[in-house]
Amino acid sequence: MIGGKSGARLLGTALIVATLAGCGGGGTKEVPLDSLTAEEIYKRGEYALETRPKPTEAIRYFTEVERLYPYTEWAKRALIMQAFTYHKSKKYEEARSAAQRYLDYYPGDEDAGYAKYLLALSYYDQIDDVGRDQGVTFQALQALRAVIEEYPDTEYARSAILKFDMAFDQLAAKEMEIGRYYLKRGNYSAAINRFRVVVQDFQTTTHTAEALHRLVEAYLALGLTDEAQTAGAILGYNYQASPFYQDSYKLLTDRGLKPEAKGDSWLKQVYRQVIRGEWI
């Protein structure tokens, strides 16, 4: 990472064997780390990371570089490797701590963007299934947004944009799950509140068409036909080919209604925004 004679070849082989033995193999007593240079300890960490099934040993070496040789170039490299190795081993809190220390010590360094990305990734990779609490999803979104805004022309920003969209979709999915729960149990007002959040705050996600359809269902159940028709009109304007629109259209026409903007609810405002091209 940081980057022909038989006698010489044998000497090289002997040196490699001695080095590997020092890394803990063959029962040979390890040389005290404080007798090694920062580069030697760092490279042992790299070797352990590449060859050991668990990263514990690699983390120890990278930590020792920072402890024994603070404020050196090797300590800086070791710190970013700590963040990477902790994340690889799914020790996300430790990964965030190491990444944040790197940003605190070296905010202008060329690897600061990567540290910021690792910090965001440590939240993103903790996002649970839709059925569980989504608090960490908000933290992931905030951290990913920071990468996008602070390092816009990097590969990290491009990756963060994709992950941001997926995390954003995850939050919308959570709202939909709760809304469907309320709708199924006849708690229509509570269901509408959840679907409204999706329509207003998560309109770029994959859940908007269904949210509009569920609004049609919920408003019809409450007898609020103006709102139901307006939701159907928005759905038809944006998602006419969607099966959700076909279902909403049938629900409305079966009651002698049609998708059209009516009344003066929050949906009417959304409809006007759609017509002006300011929404979706």
From TrEMBL:
Its main location: membrane. Residues 37-231 form the Outer membrane lipoprotein BamD-like domain. Pfam families: YfiO (PF13525). It is found in: Cell outer membrane. It is a lipid-anchor. Belongs to the BamD family. Part of the Bam complex. Part of the outer membrane protein assembly complex, which is involved in assembly and insertion of beta-barrel proteins into the outer membrane. This is Outer membrane protein assembly factor BamD. It comes from Rhodobacter ferrooxidans.
